[in-house]
Amino acid sequence: MLPTNESADDAPADNLPADKAPPEHVSTSSDSSPRAPSPNGRANAAEDSAPTSPPEAPTDPAMDPKLNIQDLHFWYGDNHALQGIHMDIQPNKVTALIGPSGCGKSTLLRCLNRMNELIEGTTMEGTVLVDGQDIYASNTDPVMVRRRVGMVFQKPNPFPKTIYKNVTWGAEINGYDGDLDALVERSLRQAALWSEVKDRLHTSALDLSGGQQQRLCIARTLAVEPDVVLMDEPASALDPIATSKVEETITELKQDYTIVIVTHNMQQASRISDETAFLYMGRLVEMNPTDQLFTRPEKDRTEAYVTGRFG
Amino acid sequence: MELSPNGSFNLRRLHRKRVGLALAGVLFLATIFGIVVLVTLLVDVVVTSVPWLDGQFIASLPSRNPGEAGIQSALIGSLWLMGLTALISVPLGVASALYLEEYARDGWFLRLIQVNIANLAGVPSVVYGILGLALFVRFAALSNSLLAGALTLSLLILPIIIISTQEALRSIPSGIRESAYALGATRWQVIYSHVLPMAAPGIMTGVILALSRAIGETAPLILVGALTFVPFVPQGALDQFTALPIQIFNWTARPQDEFRGLAAAAIVVLMILLFTMNLTAILLRNYFESRRAGA
Q1: Which of A184, B88, B110, B175 is deepest in the core (most CB within 10 A)?
Q2: Does B107 touch chain A (CB under 8 A)?
Q3: Do B294 and A161 touch (CB under 8 A)?
Q4: E-assigned strand segments in chain A
Q5: Residues B80, B32: one domain?
Q6: Contact flag A162-B294 (C-beta cutoff 8 Å)
Q7: What number is the ipTM of this complex?
Q8: Chain B nearest CA to A199, separation (Å)
Q9: Count of CB pairs separated by less than 8 Å, A with B
């Protein structure tokens, strides 16, 4: 059931997500080169919105994890922040990572799209497979990984440009050749922001409220058509109303995306996630369906944490 | 252990208040001292220059006759120097800063370079003049041309440009970089689309401040052989030249009183030039900052 390392090596490194991204028209030669993607091979927006069934249909998507993490270790200098994480993350589900501050949940999240390697002095060991493909393989380009595995950060950080430009920039640098207006509208609708900003697309994104900015950041991430969306405490800097809007958005998004969210807020985890992983001191303590983890945790430590007795 | 609050408070409220007032007074005097000296200097220079400062002064070449003397060749020489120096030092400085800040891996080598740049920024300008003389005037056989002078001044201000550009780059919030990377941008795309535009106001300010240091430099130009008497306007980068500070230096050394008036007038012109450059820096920064806000 789990893809092995061998299968990962055989799989073309650029095999795009089956359910959303259209097949590239240039069929790459065997072992593929993610370093030389064909940006124009991406189909236009109209095609993208309809799920196309891939030529090499994968097995039942419910069976294959979207992300497969094997024995993941991570160090900041000498600080052993992740100590052997094993985890499967299912497609089209919201997976919440919870745990006390410093337990490694954000670090784990940032290992899933190679953001951590932008920090100097860090070391990683282990395997992370996205659709069976090793994203840390030597022939995998981190730039391509990050396009497939998008990320929304804790602090809303729109680019100091217009709303429109915020959405289109990522698509443009990735060689998107479709209709940008359509892309902007679709992405903003997906992020539940369209109706609020449709009349001022060409004004500065910095004039939006915090909650709107965060949804714009979500829209911006969706515009490059990722497979997986990582969210690092996306609502922690927002007020309750903005938070509930962002949560609604997340719940909507799981139809099309696999979402991994780090949160400090256990109510939030229980509201929006399907699976919850509890991390403590760099280790995965327990991972189970959310209702089970919160009501019938297997481990004492999980129970202590979710009931608020520590952490 | 038992807490025994036996001590009493001696508030000495008046005393503390007096110390505070006295300190505020000292700080005020220190500020005023600098301002008074500066204003006195300015007023003196402006008053001395008034009889000499006219269109004829700007448009005339230097002359042995104070009544006919002007700063045309020095002013144009200075403008040439600034233009060439900017052309050489800005691309080099910004590129170096981008490399050091965005590309170079942290390590002892990078730190060594950093320390050396910081030290170079403090090297006396005469030393740069000697270097320019050996490297550009003699070795590169540029003789005492504008280009040799501009290259020397470029070396002098490169450290300042590099350091201020690095600071501007560092001030870009990491969230902007990270979110651009998270969209699948390459390093160059992140730098070109976000980091450079956002750092532009800071870079410009640094560049213009560096250039305004260069425009007032005298010692290195004397060493690379700027002439003190140039009765012609330079036509190209390889021409001989003089510059405003050199002209001022030359006039103040003359025995006749009239030349002191001329020097004061040249100083006023130089200060107007400096003021204009600083104003440009501020305007550019404001322009880019309003653009940074989007729209």
Answers
A1: A184
A2: no
A3: yes
A4: 67-76, 79-89, 94-98, 122-130, 133-134, 149-152, 228-232, 258-262, 275-280, 283-289
A5: no
A6: yes
A7: 0.76
A8: 14
A9: 80
Residues of chain A with Cβ-Cβ distance to B109 below 8 Å are none
Of B1 and A291, more confident:
A291
Predicted TM-score (pTM) of the model is: 0.77
Residue B237, amino acid: A
Residue given tokens 């270790």 in the structure block = A73
**B contacts of A170 (beta carbons < 8 Å):** 183-185
Query: Which pLDDT belongs to residue B293?
Result: 54
Q: Of all residues in chain B, what percent carry a pLDDT higher than 90? A: 49
Strand partners, A134: A129
A205 CB neighbours in chain B (<8 A) are 294
The confidence band for A5, taking pLDDT boundaries of 50, 70 and 90, is very low
Chain A nearest C-alpha distance from B186 (Å): 6
Residue B1 belongs to some domain of the structure: no
B179 vs A147, A207, A217: nearest CB: A217
Range of the domain at B115: 57-294
Q: Domain for residue B238, yes or no?
A: yes
- Interatomic CA distance for residues A177 and A44, integer angstroms: 7
DSSP A174-190: TT--S-HHHHHHHHHHH
Q: Which two tokens stand for residue A36?
A: 């030389």
Residue B290 belongs to some domain of the structure? yes
Same domain, B145 and B261: yes
pLDDT band at A258 (very low <50, low <70, confident <90, very high): very high
Say whether both B162 and B32 belong to one domain.
no
Hey, is A232 helix, strand or coil?
Answer: strand
Q: Are residues B144 and B175 in the same domain?
A: yes
Task: Give A9 to chain B, closest Cα distance, Å.
Answer: 22
CATH number for position B78: 1.10.3720.10
Q: What is d(CA B2, CA B49) in angstroms, rounded to the nearest whole number? A: 78
